[in-house]
Amino acid sequence: MPELPEVEIVCRNLSEILQPPTEVQGWKFFRKDLRFVIPQKKLNSLIGKKILSISRRAKYILIEFSDEVVISHLGMTGQWRVEKSGWQKQKHDHVALQYSKDSHLVYSDPRRFGFIEFIKKSELNQKFESLGPEPLQKDLDFNKLTEKFKKLDSTIKVALMDQKLIVGVGNIYASEVLFMAKVNPLKKCSKVKIDEYQKIWRCTQVVLQKAIDQGGSTIENYKNSFGQSGDFQSYLQVYDREGEDCLTCRGKIRKKVLGGRATFWCATCQKN
DNA sequence: ACTGGATCCTGATCGC
DNA sequence: TGCGATCAGGATCCAG
User: Fold this and answer.
1) Which nucleotide is nearest to A152 (CA to C1')?
2) Beta bridge partners of residue A120, listed in sequence order
3) Burial class of residue A144 (count of CB atoms within 10 Å of its CB; 0-12, 13-18, 19+)
4) Which residues pair with A264 in a beta bridge?
5) How far is Cα A79 from Cα A269, in angstroms, rounded to an integer?
6) Count of alpha carbons within 13 angstroms of residue A130, beta-carbon side
7) CB-based contacts of A174, cutoff 8 Å, min separation 6
8) What angle do CA A77, A79, A85 make, to 5 degrees?
9) Is A261 a catalytic site residue?
10) Is the pLDDT of residue A185 over 80?
11) pLDDT digits (tens, 9 = 90+) for A190-210
12) Is the torsion defined by CA of A119, A121, A126, A131 positive or negative?
């Protein structure tokens, strides 16, 4: 589900809901593990403490306290949703953060690929040291990225999804970005031309920004914290459109599994 | 040091 | 209608 745009939307929702000086009133735990064991004791130690800010790094949501950071990753199917008084626990609700007398933020996640971690602020840099740059940062260094990608042996599609190289691009947006850049996803990184890389970085920014502006993509179950779906799915050009006509040239949309993930492209627009 | 594949988990969908 | 196989927005671990 959630790639950079969806995580960004959830972050913005959480920022709005947990505006300072919101304090943690309590936690409810309905399960002891997600992808990892939930650090219940450490989270409970935050009761009474103020939430200072909510931010995003890659596809991670960071809830910042004075000395600690709670990290939430949504995996494939994680959601944080607001519940007011009298909410009924649903099947896949695993954790709830009580942030006012009768309000909770509930973490639900059917597949439980997501996780909640607790770390000291001082450990934050180390935690994320292997992550690539944020694609939407204003001073994203296109040349440095291109240089790094040029050396790789993998396909451009697989590399684009590698969080060590550049963060935030997942399976949907990788196909969409390459369509917009008119680059064949099967092409080896070393064969992609310099001007094609320029287009790829630019299109990555355009696609991700537009997806954020549209509230993300709702394919199966993505909802923001207020239960609303995104709109970007109606702008998808190739993802999940195998056998259909390209919306630009009427060529056929193809599908191939790369690195274990379904990959879509237009056989005509992205011939190269 | 890289790359590709298997793996974690539940639910929806597809084909027989 | 039923049932098994396959697939799904992610990231990590392991073998080659």
Assistant:
1) B2
2) A68
3) exposed
4) A255
5) 36
6) 4
7) A157, A160, A161, A185, A263
8) 145
9) yes
10) yes
11) 999 999 999 999 999 999 999
12) positive
Classify residue A254 as exposed, middle or buried by CB count within 10 Å of its CB (0-12, 13-18, 19+): buried
pLDDT at A194 (0 to 100)? 95
Strand C footprint nucleotides (protein C-beta < 7 Å): 7-12
Give me the amino acid identity at A122.
S
A94 CB contact with strand B at below 7 Å: no
Position A241 confidence tier, pLDDT thresholds 50, 70, 90: very high
CA A153 to C1' C16, in angstroms, rounded, equals 16
Amino acid identity of A110? P
A193: Cβ contacts below 8 Å, ≥ 6 apart = none
List C-alpha distances in Å: A32 to A38, A40, A51, A53, A115. 6, 8, 23, 26, 11
> Phi-psi bin for A223: left (phi > 0), alpha (psi -120 to 50), beta?
beta
CA distance A66 to A82: 24
